[in-house]
Amino acid sequence: MTYEYITRSAEETIELGRLIGERLRGGDIIAYKGSMGAGKTTMTRGLTLGLGLGDTAFSPTFALVNEYRGEGLTLYHFDMYRIGSALDLETTGFFDYLDDESVLAVEWSENIEEELPEERIIVTLERVDDDTRKITIDGDERFAHLSD
Hints:
Elements: E1 2-7, H1 10-22, E2 29-33, H2 40-50, E3 65-68, E4 74-79, H3 86-92, E5 102-107, E6 121-127, E7 133-138
Parallel strand pairs: 2-5, 2-6, 4-5
Antiparallel strand pairs: 1-7, 3-4, 6-7
Helix pairs in contact: 1-2
């Protein structure tokens, strides 16, 4: 199922991310799609809030993966911008992170699309203008009516 939302500020994008985060379960993979500056890391800040991990997210561009731990689920936040092949992906240890005790948020997921499990939640962020984002979620009914 596909759900569309519009946010008109970074704060609204974080809030939508928080609502998504509250609905996530162990083993979920968020596959982000969107250009630079579309709001993927901003959305992840909301995920960490929704998962009860605080407002701790920052871009994993240079680290490749950031880990956010709490008392419940762990969130692994990946940046696949520089990953160009299955071999590159293997060297990141990505497959070691796939388990039922964690959630993965993957920026630039289109670079590893063929390597991702079919069961994933695709979140596409489109920059409409400086503040406005169109956010499309391809997932199950957990993500309906998030802005009601």
